[in-house]
Fold this protein.
Amino acid sequence: MEFFSHSPAETEALAERLALHLSPGAVIAYEGGLGMGKTAFTRGLARGLGYNGHVTSPTFTIVNEYEGTKLPLFHFDMYRLSGAEDLFDIGWEDYLDRGGVCAVEWSEMVADALPPETIYVRFARSPEHDSWRTISIEGVDLI
């Protein structure tokens, strides 16, 4: 499914909507360059899972954890990892077993470690306007 976002608020609202369709152990793989809205999407996802605090990119920490009232959210940034083997070194399997939702930025760095039922969210700049985004979601139906 393809969606268009004209603002960070619209991106967050789309992610909140996605959160309603997630179950424990869900993995969401983000694909898209810098400044495409991945952190805004994660803010909406966290809110949809019942977390109302501050959400930031885990660029230097690798993973941020947010305890929502519905499900915990584990927000990963794989940019600094050299491959899937590094992911297992930081306890990837433990996060999968904890029954939360794993949102993975720069997922292409660890594609080999993602489960087959992964939901893919792809971010691209809209050709109509530099600040608008096209967001494609694959692996779940948001109807």
Observations:
- The radius of gyration is 14 Å.
- The domain at 2-134 is CATH 3.40.50.300 (Rossmann fold).
- The chain is about 25% helix and 25% strand.
- Residues 8-19 form the longest helix (12 residues).
